[in-house]
């Protein structure tokens, strides 16, 4: 039960991140511009996060889907950390980590039995 709750909360958190890109929330898109992420990539980044969130939820029924989504999100948010570091915006490193950590936790907890 605990794993399911953590998974749902993580999926909602990642989904919120996706929505923030889709609605072009100022606090998300301004840093993306500063990091040099091209605008044409923003919809794809939001779609990747939304798909990952949906995959985590699907993993409640089909565990392999959740594991694959979790791996994809770990890669995504690791890439986000690298992007922030390359932009030398060190004060912003904690932000992608706030999304990466719960995804890692879901993967560490394992499939819902």
Automatic annotation (TrEMBL):
Task: List the subcellular locations.
Answer: Membrane
Chief localization class?
membrane
Keyword Transmembrane helix on this protein?
Answer: yes
Q: What is this entry's stated membrane topology?
A: Multi-pass membrane protein
Q: Which InterPro entries match?
A: DoxX (IPR032808)
Report the Pfam families cross-referenced here: DoxX_2
Give the UniProt keywords, A-Z.
Membrane, Transmembrane, Transmembrane helix
Looking at the UniProt entry, the stretches that span the membrane are: 50-77, 89-110
Q: What is this protein called?
A: DoxX family protein
Q: Which organism is it from?
A: Nonomuraea maheshkhaliensis
